[in-house]
C-alpha cells in the first residue's frame, strides 16, 4: 500500500475467508435434501430475527459511536500506512467509471464491441472519458459511412472531425437542407478546409447561399495564421481570375516594402479585395519598419476610398509600434484614434508611453480616461499611486498603495516596497477530507500506476498522458475540497507539477507549499550556492519555464526544468544529448552554469538576467540602450514584448514567495535597482 490508499482494512482485523474444500460437507442426496427442506422454516425465522437485531445494533453504532471512533481509527490507519510504497486495491467498489472497460473499448473500437461501447457512452455521457470514447466510436462509424448509426449516437462536441461528419451524415440521410444550414456555422468558426470538412464545404460552395466574400474573410485569417493547407483549399474556391491575387498577397506579406512598386487591380469585382490586401500588407510593413511604412502612407494621394474601420485599424497599429519604439510621433497617431475604436491595448500603451517619458500628469489623465473597469485593475491602480506620489499627492497615493499591499501578487509586492513595509506572504494549511476520495480508489490506484510508469516508452499513448486524462475525469467528479485533497495526495507522490495545476484553479490559494513546490530541493540549493545564485531565483525561473517537468519541450526547443536548448547546453557540455539533458541532475547543473554566465554579463541584476534568459542576451542589451537610468518597475512595464513583460513580473513575484518558503526574508531590493544605460 502507499500513502495514496484511501480505504483499507485496519491492522489486526482479519478478513473472513471462505471455508476450504476439505472442510466442506458433501452434497446431500435427494432424500436428505427433502428432510432439510422440512426444517427450513424454523431456521429461517431464527435467521430473520438475528438479522433484525444486528441491523438495529449497527444503526445505533453508526449514529452514536462512529463520530467518536472513526476519526481515531482513520488517523491511526493513515499513520500506519504512510510509509508503505505499493498501492493496493480498495475494498470500496468504484462508484463512477470502470476504467478497465474504458481502456479495453478505446483500444478496440469495432462492430463486435458495439453494444458495450454504446452502453458505456450512454452511462457516462457527460464524463470526459465517455465523450472521448463516443467521439472515437463516431469517427469509426463515419469511416464506414454508416450514417444512420452515426446520427443515433451523435452528440454535439468540440471535435472538428465529428462535427463535419455530422453534417455529412445529415446530407446523406435526406437532410441536405439541414446540413447546409449548419455548414456556415462551422465555416465561420474556422473549421479546416481539409479532411472531413472538405466534402461538405465543397458542396456548400456550389449552393446559392455561398458568397465569394466568405472565402476572402477566411483567407485573411488563414494568412494571418500561415495555415498553408487552408490557403490552398480556399484559393481553389475562388473564381479563376481572382486566384492570382492570393499569390500576390502572400508575396507582398513576405516583402511588404515592395507595396509601392505593386499595382493592385481595380475593377468592380476586385476593388474591395485590393483594399483588403493593401491595408493588410501596410499593417505588416508597420510591424517590420514603422518609419518607412508611415513615410509611404504620408505620400499617398488618399484617393483610395478606405472605410473607417480599415483606417482606424491602421492608426492603431502605427501608434502602437511608434509607442513601442518610444517615438515621440506616437502622440499624434494616438490622437487619430476615435474613442469607439480604441482598445484596451491602445489605452494601455498610451499610459506606458507616458511612463517611458515619466510624464506623471499624462499618466493620471490617461488612466482617468479608461473605462471604470480597467481603471480598477491592479496595474493601473499601482501606476495611479506612483503618479500621485510623483505629483505631490503622497497621502492619496498611500491610500491606494495600502489597499494593493494587502494582496499577494506582483503589484501588491511593489506597493508594499513603496510603503517600506513587509510583504504580505503567508502559508495556510487547509483541512483535507480523504473520505471524498474513497469511492474513487480504483481510479486513484490506476493513476498512481501510470504516473510511476511515466518514463515507459512503450507504444501507444504515453503513461503520463493517460494519467492526466484519468485525473481530469476524476477532478470533474470532485468538489473543490476533494480536488484540494487530491492535490495533497499528488504532492505526497512527488507529482508536484499536477498538484500545482490543481490547486491554482480552486479557492485554496494560500497553500503556498502546493502552489510553489520545490522538487530536487537539495540538488538545487547546493548547486545554486556553489554558483552564488539565490535558490529562490532559480526556483522562480524553473516554475515559469517548465512547471518542474523533466522532459517537457518548448516550441523554441527548450528541454526540461529550466528549458535550456540543446545548442546552449552544448556550450558547456559539448557531448550532451537531449536524453541526457532531460535528467534533472544534468539539466540543473548546466542551467545554473548558464545563469552564472548571465550574472557576470549583466552585473548580477536579476531583472536583466531574467530578461536575457527569456528574450536572449542581445535583445536585453538593446533594451538597455537608454539615455539615463530607468526605475526598475517602469522598465518592466514598458518592455515591448508582452511575454517578457509577464515573465519579469512573475520572476519577481515568485522569487519573493520562494524566499519566504526557504525561510529567507523576502526582499525586493535587488530587483528594484535602476536599469543603467549600456
Explain this structure:
This protein is mostly helical. Helix content is 61%, strand content 0%. The chain contains 36 helices and no strands. It has helices spanning 30-64, 66-81, 99-107, 114-123, 128-143, 147-153, 160-171, 176-188, 196-204, 212-224, 228-237, 243-254, 271-288, 290-299, 308-324, 330-334, 344-356, 360-368, 372-375, 378-390, 394-405, 410-418, 441-452, 463-477, 480-492, 496-503, 512-515, 521-530, 535-546, 566-569, 578-581, 584-601, 606-615, 617-623, 632-637, 642-661. Helix 4 (114-123) runs antiparallel to helix 5, helix 17 runs antiparallel to helix 18 and helix 33 (606-615) crosses helix 36. The protein is globular. The two termini are 60 Å apart. Mean pLDDT is 84; it is low at 1-41 and 58-95.
Q: What's the gist of this structure?
A:
By secondary structure, the protein is an all-alpha fold. It contains 36 helices and no strands. Helix 13 packs antiparallel against helix 14 and helix 33 packs across helix 36 (642-661).
Notable features of this structure?
678 residues; mainly alpha; 36 helices; 61% helix; 0% strand; globular; disordered N terminus
Could you give the topology of this structure?
Blueprint: H1 30-64, H2 66-81, H3 99-107, H4 114-123, H5 128-143, H6 147-153, H7 160-171, H8 176-188, H9 196-204, H10 212-224, H11 228-237, H12 243-254, H13 271-288, H14 290-299, H15 308-324, H16 330-334, H17 344-356, H18 360-368, H19 372-375, H20 378-390, H21 394-405, H22 410-418, H23 441-452, H24 463-477, H25 480-492, H26 496-503, H27 512-515, H28 521-530, H29 535-546, H30 566-569, H31 578-581, H32 584-601, H33 606-615, H34 617-623, H35 632-637, H36 642-661
Helix pairs in contact: 4-5, 5-6, 5-7, 6-7, 7-8, 7-9, 10-11, 12-13, 13-14, 13-15, 15-17, 17-18, 18-20, 20-21, 21-22, 23-24, 25-26, 28-32, 29-36, 32-33, 33-34, 33-36
